[in-house]
Amino acid sequence: MRDDQWLREKLDKIWSEYFLDVPKTDKVIIHFSKKCRNRLGSIRLVNNTLSEIKINGFLKDPDIPEFVCEAVMAHELTHYVHGFGSSRPQLYKYPHRGGIVAREMIRRGVGHKHYAAKDWINTNWMGFYESKVHR
Ligand SMILES: [Zn+2]
What we know:
Number of domains: 1
Helix content: 40-55%
Largest sheet: 3 strands, mixed
Bound molecules: zinc ion
């Protein structure tokens, strides 16, 4: 079952696998948030200390492949590394401009999950969403 504990363990694994040069900290928290149509994840800095990663509640659904969840977590962790939603130094002016997230994920060896998730989302997300909302 995908719950917040599952998220924490997954994040820890992704961190160890692809972000090992970045010191782990208990100042990064992750949990599921509300289900919504447009946003799969987000990260924000709370009280200038705590990085809160929120994952769209729809991603609890086993119909969504785990690599999608993993890609969303790696995406948010990339923002953290770039200093967005993070107390780390901000490395860029904007969080997404110039494809910096994808580039960083590719550089770190997690590009395959980025692209697999992107394909799955482009092909299936709206159908998934409609099927959950209109049944
Ligand atoms: Zn983003």
